[in-house]
């Protein structure tokens, strides 16, 4: 019985959105489950997917809070 945990920052992917939408979560669940079916032959009904949204201030990247890391990266011309 596989368990997949997906952690994402709590922010929207479209203007005005402040979190991952239910539709996006459904796509993540479907995609992760199908990947385990395709690669490891794990049945969909035996696969559990947990999505955890983490506030951005609780997410670090490159030794910095994520917003600061992104700001610095943007100034350097990287995406």
From TrEMBL:
Pfam family, one: Tautomerase
Entry's EC annotation: 5.3.2.-
Record has Isomerase as a keyword: yes
Enzyme class: isomerase
Residues covered by the 4-oxalocrotonate tautomerase-like domain: 2-66
Alphabetically ordered keywords of this record: Isomerase
Keyword Calcium: no
InterPro entries for this protein: 4-OT, 4-OT-like_dom, Tautomerase/MIF_sf
Matching Gene3D superfamilies: Macrophage Migration Inhibitory Factor
Family to which this protein belongs: Belongs to the 4-oxalocrotonate tautomerase family.
Protein name: Tautomerase
Species of the source: Paraburkholderia bengalensis
């Amino acid at each position: 019985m596989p368990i997949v945990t997906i952690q994402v920052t709590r922010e929207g992917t479209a203007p005005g959105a402040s979190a991952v939408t239910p539709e996006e979560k459904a796509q993540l669940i479907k995609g992760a489950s199908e990947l385990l079916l395709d690669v490891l032959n794990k049945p969909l009904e035996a696969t559990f997917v947990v999505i955890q949204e983490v506030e951005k201030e609780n997410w670090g990247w490159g030794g910095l809070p994520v917003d600061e890391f992104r700001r610095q990266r943007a100034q350097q011309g990287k995406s």
